[in-house]
Amino acid sequence: MSAPHSEFRRPWPPPPLPRPSESPFLLLSFSSSDCTDSYFIRRVHFVSGELHLALSEFRQLMHAETIYIYMLILLHKFSPSLPCLLRIEAPKNPIITRRNFPAQITHSLPPHKVELFKSLESWAEDNVLPHLKPVEKCWQPQDFLPDPSSEGFYEQVRELRARSKELPDDYLVCLVGDMITEEALPTYQSVFNTFDGVRDETGATATSWARWSRAWTAEEKRHGDLLNKYLYLTGRVDMKQIEKTIQYLIGSGMDAQTENNPYLGFIYTSFQERATFISHGNTARLAKQHGDLKLAQICGIIASDEKRHEKAYTKVMEKIFEIDPNGALLAFADLMKKKITMPAHFMFDGRDERIFQHYSALAQRLGVYTANDYADILEFLVARWKIGDLTGLSGEGNKAQDFVCSLGPKVRRIEERARARAKEGSTMSFCWIFDRKVQR
Ligand SMILES: [Fe+2]
Ligand SMILES: [Fe+2]
């Protein structure tokens, strides 16, 4: 754990501290707009007369920390003689640190609205379950992989390896990141089963919601399996490092901020299924460009599953918007204000605390998944649920409507500014590809 410490410090040059005449919000705006993630205060202490804020990395700035930083800046403002030094410390044990989350909101949907999902049980049977494919009609990973029982197995593996030789390292890193995200499937099933009113209470509950949860998971399982086996056979990636990253990620879980609330849950899954449809579609397009048509077919077939799942989840929310437009809209605005967290945001390879940011930056540069895609998905959902046409809303509902309808262009503007600031030309190594360097 010695190397990660310096790696951890490198991305953050010490921020300019506000001078007494400047706004105390200077530091906060630095945290939220100039960094891809924010920071969590672990400790405040005095060292040789200097005030140290020891921060560990977290993916969002919690309300309590915002107030804390604000108070300390005020203290600095009124006591300019007291030097305030910001210092980043690597968490001693990332898994344990990440479990020490500040209070999370739970069970935010009132019981009568949870009942709504129970009353939609037969509607889900007729409208959601048909989006699953019968197992006998589903593709399986083996359909796209060398057949180990056939005489030609070694030859098929040789062909696969020859094809994959042409894949550039940065593309491989993206594909590995996508595969690791898929492989953390146990987390996603757990998260689905946190949603009040639709969870699988026993592991074999007979409700249509619970049957969807299990069968959806079973369909998703094929994605990680196929990508994992394909990448293994290429011989181009460090499987042990990848396997460690998967173990860390499942151990860390995820914080989708869905509050056990199925409104937030189904908006989140609608967003994420479309995001994965887009990213797998783009890895398919790039595989084709690099001449690996088999891999293009694999990424394409996975993308088509994600599209089908997106249809199911957006249909559930369409129904909720029909029954409770105001409540659904408030949930949509709430989730977009909090920003959609990516499922693998706690990714860690045992060395690089910022590996998720590095993988995401690469995905952005290669056009696999970009901030523009985020804006596109948001605008797609606004149109899909006809948000602009909703009427009879409360005052709060009207504000939420204005917020989500005008958010897309704002996201794009932030993205343009970030791109203008991005430094090009630097390289970094990924343990997933034996520490080979790729351009960031
Ligand atoms: Fe998937
Ligand atoms: Fe999916």
TrEMBL record:
The keyword Metal-binding applies. The keyword Transmembrane helix does not apply. GO terms for molecular function: metal ion binding; stearoyl-[ACP] desaturase activity. InterPro entries: FADS-2_CS, Fatty_acid_desaturase-2, Ferritin-like_SF, RNR-like. Pfam families: FA_desaturase_2. GO terms for biological process: fatty acid biosynthetic process. Pathway: Lipid metabolism; fatty acid metabolism. Its EC number is 1.14.19.-. Gene3D superfamilies: Ribonucleotide Reductase, subunit A. Its main location: plastid. Homodimer. Introduction of a cis double bond between carbons of the acyl chain. This is Acyl-[acyl-carrier-protein] desaturase. The lineage of its organism: Eukaryota, Viridiplantae, Streptophyta, Embryophyta, Tracheophyta.
